[in-house]
Structures are given as structure tokens and as C-alpha cells.
Amino acid sequence: MAKYWRTLFIVALFVFFVDQAIKYGVLVKGWRFEGSFFSIVLTYNKGVAFSMFAFLGPYLKYIQLALIAFIVIYLGWQKSFLKNHSLPMGIILGAGCSNILDRFWHGGVVDYFFWHRWFEFAIFNLADALINLAVAILLLQTLTCKGLKSK
């Protein structure tokens, strides 16, 4: 079981530090880019996806912190789930912790990636994209039944 916790922890740390490094570049180094498909621009999201729940203000970071704690407790309780899904759960935890850190340090999540080719999409960051990827991996594992079987 320690192997799965180690995988989760290493993946979470990697995702966390890569996301924070990019945010550092945008915040401190002033990275900007204006392309025909996407742009790198700095903005702060006070809510969650598409600024939902922004009305919760500073309470949102504590709610999200409680959700992260719940996930860790759940993984400790449901060992087979951890065993089958340590990679995507590590991605979710690392990305989630990175966004929560932004809320504590910057008052909102640091977003910077703006897709504007063919349609204008919300501004987001790497952590947001990785959370979506991890959920897709979880769904794929579940639908193919690989996530339901213990190895």
C-alpha cells in the first residue's frame, strides 16, 4: 500500500511545483504571450470554474481545503480506490493544493491561459486543465473496468 501512497505523493508534488513554477513566471517574471490561438494573460479567479461561487469570498478556500482533507481521508479508508487510481488522484490533489495556495497567497486562483481561436473560452491555468484530465482518466478507468479490479 505504501507504493500507491508514494505514487500519489510524487505525482501530487510534481503537479504542484510545475503549476507553481508557471504561475511564478506569469506573476513575477511577467511572462506574456499574444498568439492567434491563445494568449498568456494574468488574471485572478475569486470563484471556481467560470467564477462560480465567488460570492463565498474568503470562505471558499476553507471549503476547498476541507474537500482536499476529505479526499485524503477517503483514500486512506478506501484502499482499493487508492490502489486503482493513485495517478489521477495524485494529479487532482497536487493541482487542487496549488490552486488553494493561490487563494491564501493571492486572494484568488492565478489564471493565465486564454483560448480565443474560433470561440472565447474562460481563462484558466495548468492545474485546472490537469484536474479535468485526471477526472477523464478516472472515468476512462471506470468505464473500461480497469479501475474496478485490484491488481
Shape: globular
Overall tally of structural domains: 1
- Distance from first to last alpha carbon: 12 Å
Radius of gyration: 17 Å
**Helical/strand content category:** alpha+beta
For the sheet with most strands, the description reads:
4 strands, antiparallel
* Continuous helix count: 4
Helix-strand string? HEEHHEEH
Describe the strand arrangement of the main beta sheet, using strand numbers.
1-2-3-4
Show unreliable segments.
none
Give the percentage of residues in beta strands: 5-15%
Count of DSSP strands = 4
Relative helix content: 55-70%
Instruction: Please tell me the overall pLDDT.
Output: 89
Describe the structure.
The protein is α+β, with helices and mostly antiparallel strands and 151 residues long. The radius of gyration is 17 Å and the shape is globular. The protein contains four helices and four strands; from the N terminus they run αββααββα. The chain starts with a helix and ends in an 8-residue tail after the last helix. Strand 1 and strand 2 (38-45) form a beta hairpin. The chain has one domain (2-139).
Task: Indicate the topology.
Elements: H1 2-27, E1 33-34, E2 38-45, H2 59-77, H3 79-106, E3 109-115, E4 123-124, H4 126-143
Antiparallel strand pairs: 1-2, 2-3, 3-4
Helix pairs in contact: 1-3, 2-3, 3-4
Task: Summarize the structure in short.
By secondary structure, the chain is an alpha+beta fold. It is built from 4 helices and 4 strands, in the order H-E-E-H-H-E-E-H.
Protein traits:
alpha+beta, 4 helices, 151 residues, four-stranded antiparallel sheet
